[in-house]
Amino acid sequence: MNIKGVTLTLSAVCALIGSLHSASANTYVVEQTPSHYIACYHKVYVPERVLVNTRGVLVNAGHVDWEVSGDSWNRIRNPPVYLETRHVIEGDHYSLQSVACP
Predict the structure, then answer these.
(1) How far apart are the C-alpha atoms of 10 and 60, rounded to whole Å?
(2) Tens of pLDDT along 13-53?
(3) Alpha-carbon distances, residue 25 vs 14, 41, 44, 56, 83 (angstroms)
(4) Taking the model in full, what pTM does it have?
(5) Is the Cβ–Cβ distance between 52 and 13 less than 8 Å?
(6) Sign of the C-alpha dihedral computed for residues 7, 9, 12 and 14 taken in this order
(7) How far is Cα of residue 11 from the mean position of the Cα atoms in its chain?
(8) Which of 95, 28, 84, 29 is nearest to 56 (CA)?
(9) Burial of 93 (0-12, 13-18, 19+ CB in 10 A)
(10) What is the DSSP track for the chain?
C-alpha cells in the first residue's frame, strides 16, 4: 500500500468516526427553576461528655475491724471510701445533621 492509499484510508476512517459522533450527539434545552434551598440541616443538642472516676480522692482507707456484741466477736471488713471526681471531656453543643430539603 502506498502513501496515497494510506492517506485515503485514514481520511475515510476519520469521516466515518466524525459521522458516528455527530449522529449520536444530542443537545436539548430544559427549563428548570433552581431550588430556594442550597442545603438543609436539623439542629440536634449534644450533651456534654464527662469522665467520672468513682475512685477519685481517697477519704478513708479500707480496713478490717472487730465488731463486739456481748459474747459475740465478729471480724468485719470496711471498704475504702472515695470522693467521686468529674472531668469534662467535651462541652455541650448543638450539631447540624444533614437532611433532605423540602
Answers:
(1) 97
(2) 666 666 555 556 788 888 877 888 889 999 999 999 999 99
(3) 17, 39, 48, 74, 77
(4) 0.48
(5) no
(6) negative
(7) 57
(8) 84
(9) exposed
(10) --HHHHHHHHHHHHHHHHHHHHHH-----------S-S-EEEEEEEPPEEEEEEEEEEEE--EEEEEEETTEEEEEEE--EEEEEEEEEE--EEEEEEE---
Cell numbers for 46: 449534644
Q: Please give the Cα distance from 91 to 51 (Å, whole number).
A: 12
Give the residues across from 36 on adjacent strands. none
Contacts with 33 (C-beta within 8 Å, 6 or more apart), sequence order: none
